[in-house]
Amino acid sequence: MKLINTLDAVGHVLCHDITRIVKDVEKGVAFHKGHVVKEEDIPVLLSIGKEHLYVWEKDSNLLHEDEAAEILYDVCKNENMTRSETKEGKIELFAGCDGLFVVDVDRLEAINSMDNMMIATRHTNYPVKKGDKLAGTRIIPLVIEKEKMDEVKEVAGPEPLLKLLPYPKRKAGIVTTGSEVFYGRIKDTFTPVVVNKLSQYNIEAVEHVTVNDEMDNIVKAIKELKEKGVDLIVCTGGMSVDPDDRTPGAIKASGAGIISYGAPVLPGAMFLMGYFEDGTPIMGLPGCVMYAKATIFDLVLPRVAAGLKIEKKDLVKLGHGGLCLGCKVCTFPECGFGKGV
After folding, report:
1. Which domain holds residue 196?
2. Do 176 and 209 meet the contact criterion of CB atoms below 8 Å apart?
3. Residue 326 included in any domain
4. Domain MoaB/Mog spans what residues (predicted)?
5. Buried b / exposed e across 161-198, counting CB within 10 Å, b at 16+?
6. Count of the separate structural domains present in the chain
7. Mean pLDDT, to the nearest integer, of 63-69?
8. DSSP 133-182
9. Domain annotation covers residue 323
10. Residue 247 covered by a domain
């Protein structure tokens, strides 16, 4: 690439797009990269302030911004994403389906630590809809060293930097505990909330059992759902530390391994996450899920639906950003709840 006087540019090839902006009228590309400058182009170029032009000189050690942008796109993409056209060294990525958007934050930060390039994304573990914008990549200068882009590929490695995990069809079983519900003293208003939230992630509640507060009955209900082959078990009620709240103990007695009883999230501190030996997840939901618009359940469920294994460290990390402000108009997930830096 070399800089020449615009008056001397006839016959030369532009190495970048040239934008024309007319306030309140037009903003667009007047001349595209690769355009061969003609005599009649000179007055137009001068009128938009281009007294000098960068024209392309092929150099095997340099890449044009658009060529380099393709490399950034390649290290980001997976098969469930679509893309924009390449323009001025920039490519945007979009969701090709509903799913959980996952970012390898460490590798993202490593690439963004390099000069003259950037990748901006949504937060990791973010549930998205088909068509949502996921990320944007940009090469800052007009040309960049090929060696630097080779380093990007090395840092990124063979796995995509970004993933979009679709929600496969799953079946859930729900155990509602509480003598007050079992004996009909109050209406069950918890289960409809859970069923609705499950359905948002392609999970159908196919089994529902209501039991009283007796430990043996809760254990029996959980085991029966497990034997019926559901993909996920959700238990509601009896999740506090009161002596007559026996659901956490029943979940453990049913044979599930407890990942954590308790999470640094409000609302949702009394949440329980566990797994059976075959990998079937089981969750104990605190009462806040019944009435709060966004809780720990909304943070964990998309990950479970996408097939991610929840570990204790995943719940621990939720403490940073895990305080819901209880806004009068809830905008979750378009807010900071559950999104630590």
Report:
1. 170-317
2. yes
3. no
4. 173-306
5. bbbbbbbeebbbbbbbbbeebbeeeeebebbebbbebb
6. 3
7. 88
8. EEEEEEE-SSEEEHHHHHHHHHHH-SS-SEEEE----EEEEEEEE-HHHH
9. no
10. yes
| Cα–Cα distance list, 276 to 32, 106, 174 (Å) | 59, 31, 16
Q: Is residue 332 part of a domain?
A: no
Q: Which helix (H) or strand (E) holds 260?
A: strand 257-261
Residue 244 has pLDDT above 70, yes or no: no
Q: Which residues, listed in sequence order, are joined to residue 163 by a DSSP beta bridge?
A: 102
User: Which one, of 162, 98, 100, 105, lies nearest residue 125 by Cα?
Assistant: 100
* pLDDT, tens only, 113-141: 999 999 999 999 999 999 999 999 999 98
What whole-number distance in Å separates Cα of residue 337 and Cα of residue 318?
9
Measured CA to CA, the distance from residue 92 to residue 130 in angstroms comes to 14
Query: From residue 327, how far is each of 23, 167, 271, 291 by CA, in Å?
Result: 39, 29, 22, 14
Global pTM value? 0.86
Same domain, 84 and 35: no
Q: Say whether both 128 and 218 belong to one domain.
A: no
